[in-house]
Amino acid sequence: MKILVIIKDTFRELLVRKTLIGFLIFNVLALVGIAIFVNNDTITGIITAQKKTMTPELYATIAAGFETEVMAFFYVILIFISIFSTASVIPSILEKGTIDLYLSKPVARWELLLGKILGSILVVAANIGVFMAGAWIILSMRLGIWNTGFIAAAPVLLFAFVVLYSIVAMFNMLTRSSAVGIIVTYVHFIVVSSFLANRDKIFMFVESKFWHGVIDWAYYLLPQTSEQSHIASLLVTHGDIASWFPIWASSIFAFVMFGFAGWLFQTRDF
Amino acid sequence: MDITIQLLNLVKDYRGGRNKKIHALAGVSLDIARGEIFSLLGPNGAGKTTMVKVLLGIAFPSSGSGTLLGKPLGDTATKTRIGYLPENHRFPNYLTGEQVLRYFGTLTGMHGALLETRIAETMTIVNMQEWGRMKIRKYSKGMLQRIGLAQAMLNNPEIIFLDEPTDGVDPIGRKEIRQTLVRIKEQGATIFLNSHLLSEVERISDRVAIMNKGKILRTGSVEDLTNTNHEYVITIEGDPKAAVAAIGNRATSIKVEQNQLTLRVDSIADLNAITDALRAASVNIAEIAKRHESLEDAFINLIEQVD
């Protein structure tokens, strides 16, 4: 009950901060952009030609490939703005004068933190849901194929956000600042994750076994955001997913990060 | 006596720079009875706010123990029975006054008609009924304090902790808040007040503790704290020189200001002997009064003695 009240307040907070409106504007612009793009003369010509010349199976494969490109492009943007817009939710309750009020109420500290985390996740889930559903409808109507794989990729996208948000939450709790959490998460998302995903290529240039070990450990311990994007792409194309390791290893990582943030919150003096 | 707050040798240390320990509370023991207005006085950094935070479970004690309404400090369920107005509180500024009360009331476990009734009642008590639907970002400091007080009273608490409740409030508002606190006390609640406005504390407190450097230096009623032992002020009519001559060496000290003699004596017997001597010397005595310090004087004297 109290968690629901805190979740509701998180929605209200993000609404007032114009985050929800920002999401809505982004969704509208992105969906209009997709609609214009798939309806331009070149794309229309290609689709018409391919429909005539290809077998239905081949056409479906190429259409799914096209949807994958759209999804991969917005995957990065959606995660980027989702992290940015929710990173201040936890620091806002840790401010002096606010946290005292919350902790004087009969609400367990874990309930308060969980309410704020769930509120942030639900706001992002709503945004991702609206975008993916809208994009799926536009693409399906234009391509003439209703590929459910595209919708199946949405939970993976949300999962990637949740894992990265666990880093934000931990740094929020450690530093009481949203900036540090955002920077660390972006560095991981844009630099470290891509670097580790290409570790086989990097090993060709690094001879030291020690550094091989370090990179391997980092790869297995840190969230595998690039691989999650790959899994989402495979879901869109109905490809075989060889390993779910990036999902469950990242789940453990997120669990540890949220757990550490919770422990810090539970034991800290305010 | 029904004890609502009990502290036993409570210690709270913070880590300062270079592993240096800061003793915010250095072994505080205290009992506060139900229905008291108890005020904590002390200079900045004395440990007053830390004490409230430890009592409410906002900070954890380093050692020692305590109870709040018979339950261990920080007990979550007990918090349904207390109210708190922190110093420099920050409510979510996107809410209206009523929404603030509704939100924090729900977190306290209130809901439905009871919550709505209490919102209306407390808004009226703090004179904010006209401003309940205004966003609090538009409130003045005084209005924020009033909403803060309404929030602290919302659940009809058995203990209400107020940290500088009249901060930023104009004199009329301060008077209203004082009257409200007395009314809450009359309903049986205990009030724990942190304030640096000594005149205010003096007017409403049943008991006062003076604190410095994490220690309670003295506890007692305002009367106890301001009472000066064996100091009297005698107001006379006529020549003070004649009066001083009549008193002779019966007083250990005499200070003369116009027609007022401030005397220190060793005993009541000496005071009686002095009045007899004055009467014998035909000095007219207009008034004899025991000298009281103001709470501010008592506070400053005590802090300076310890420093």
Strand content of chain B: 25-35%
Largest sheet of chain A: none
Strand content of chain A: under 5%
The major sheet of chain B is characterized as: 6 strands, mixed
Name the overall outline of chain A: globular
Q: Roughly how many Å is the radius of gyration of chain A?
A: 21 Å
Number of helices of chain A: 13
Quote the distance from N terminus to C terminus of chain B: 34 Å
Could you explain how this protein is built, in words?
The complex is a heterodimer of chains A (270) and B (307). With 270 residues, chain A is mainly alpha-helical. Chain A has one domain. The longest helix of chain A is centred in the middle third of the chain and has 35 residues. Chain A starts with a helix and ends with a helix. The mean pLDDT of chain A is 92. Chain B is α/β, with parallel strands linked by helices and 307 residues long. Helix content of chain B is 35%, strand content 31%. A six-stranded mixed β-sheet of chain B has the order 6-7-8-3-9-10, with helices on both faces. In chain B, helix 2 crosses helix 3 and helix 3 packs across helix 4. Chain B is elongated. The interface between A and B is medium-sized, with 25 and 31 residues.
Key phrases:
heterodimer, A: 270 residues, mainly alpha, 84% helix, globular, B: 307 residues, alpha/beta, 4-stranded antiparallel β-sheet, 10 helices, 14 strands, 35% helix, elongated
